Amino acid sequence: MKKAIVLGATGGTGQVIVSELLNRGIEVIAFGRSQNKLEALLAEYNHHLSLTYKLGDIFDYQTIVDAAKDADVIFQCANVKYQEMAEKLMPLGESVMKAADALGKRIVIVDGIYVYGHQVAKGDENHPQNPHTKKGKLRVVFEQLIFSEKWKRAEALIVRLPDYYGPTSQNSYLQPTLDGVAAGKTSIFIGNLKTPREYVYLPDAAKMIVNIAEKDDSYGENWNIPGAGLISGKEIIRIARKVTGNQKAVIPLTKNVIRLVGLFDEFMREIVEIMYLTKEGFILSGEKYEKRIGAIPATPFQKGLEKTLQALMDKNN
């Protein structure tokens, strides 16, 4: 891979993919619809000679074709809001795959774990896909679209991440907690504080995703991107308070509270059905990655949270 394009380059996952590619000496085209955000991204890298950008609309496949024609691999990191998923997820998938197929390109699709539903077996790539939520069922149809036989020239793979965190994170479940603590405010925690859960540090995820993308035999498959183990909300808050010095309350939001808030907030209303993950957790197996790719990058939570919180505090100053 000599040149890649990152769709949704200014998002949380897109930014770490851009960084990882540049660190490997790979030319990067950052693709998005906001010129201001793309120019800010270039400025962050001091207008790195290997980083350029293209304006476009993820739902207009021709703009992707025009931007990606010189790239070896397309990284699809753009996403849709929870409350718009039913209307926009499939058109997004159709657009990116149509573009990849028209160009005969390899494409890496970044996705989550809703397709699995409740964990009933080892969390490897063969875990049964029995989602019990609207979002999970939609993600199964999305996967079928990505791997559809109608695409004759595109080569696709899907990487699946658990909940995540990191300096670039924007829309994770953990984000309101870390934002609030870093800002010295009272904050919230979505879910049960006692349940040990898996989180992946985004720079680690980027390393694994690019490693997978560079292997010729990775395509046509699902790949899990595991975190560095399990950690409870209580432990996250303990570390966050130690790093920031903020001892203000962190209020856990249970399913019933979120359902109540959802009467007035469309986003919170959409969270209710996937609250099972905050109560039960879901542990991804990295055995396939270790066997086919190598050792799993696993930044300890203490170090990852320190870097994340410091970045948030710097942004607030």
TrEMBL record:
CC annotations in GO = cytoplasm
- Coiled-coil zones: none
Q: Which domain of life is it from?
A: Bacteria
GO: which molecular function terms?
Answer: aldehyde dehydrogenase (NAD+) activity
Q: Which SUPFAM superfamilies match?
A: NAD(P)-binding Rossmann-fold domains
Domain named NAD-dependent epimerase/dehydratase: residues: 5-225
Q: What is this protein called?
A: Epimerase
Give the species.
Oceanobacillus sojae
Q: What does UniProt list as this organism's lineage? A: Bacteria, Bacillati, Bacillota, Bacilli, Bacillales
